[in-house]
Amino acid sequence: SATKHIDGQGRCLGGVILSDEEWINDEVMPFVKHTGPHMSPFSAWVLLKGLETLPLRVARQTESAGQIADFLAGQSKVKRLIYPGRDDHPQADAVKRQMQGGSTMVALEIEGGKEAAFRFLDALELIKISNNLGDAKSLICHPATTTHQSIGEEAREELGITDGILRLSVGLEDPQDLLEDIEKALAAL
Predict the structure, then answer these.
(1) CA–CA separation, 175 and 95 (whole Å)
(2) pTM summary value
(3) Is the pLDDT of residue 1 over 80?
(4) Are 183 and 123 in contact (CB under 8 A)?
(5) Domain 54-187: homologous superfamily in CATH
(6) Angle at which helices 41-73 and 175-187 pack, to 10 degrees?
């Protein structure tokens, strides 16, 4: 989704298809020819401009996400933490081989399920609730009632998406401000 980090501010919709030339020519191009799903020139320009600062933005966001993950790892009200940049991640070795940093995303499971997760969300002030993650501002969502709601409880359980799971997309705000917002929300539990 180019709408996410490539644009960086959620201003336009865009996507990228990566494949070999044969599949693009045989499958994608006929579809495009017959249905016309082309992006506007202005949206294309916005995405190209976003690429100019992509490495700087993602590096800052990843650094802040790592600080937040380290803080959350020591919190008793956080039942589970998923962050690829930490040594306790189940695939930490693969992450170290394949990535330069952890990620801009942090998943955390709040002790107490959906009710506690919603209390946490409601207590946040700086971090906003949205299911369109990957912006320059920090956003958080509750996957069980938003992005993964339609797949059903059994499928969510198989994926590890409990009612207490939240996905935090870390933005460009000062990391100390984000940590204070999270600490205050944890205290509300």
Answers:
(1) 23
(2) 0.86
(3) no
(4) no
(5) Aspartate Aminotransferase, domain 1 (3.90.1150.10)
(6) 60
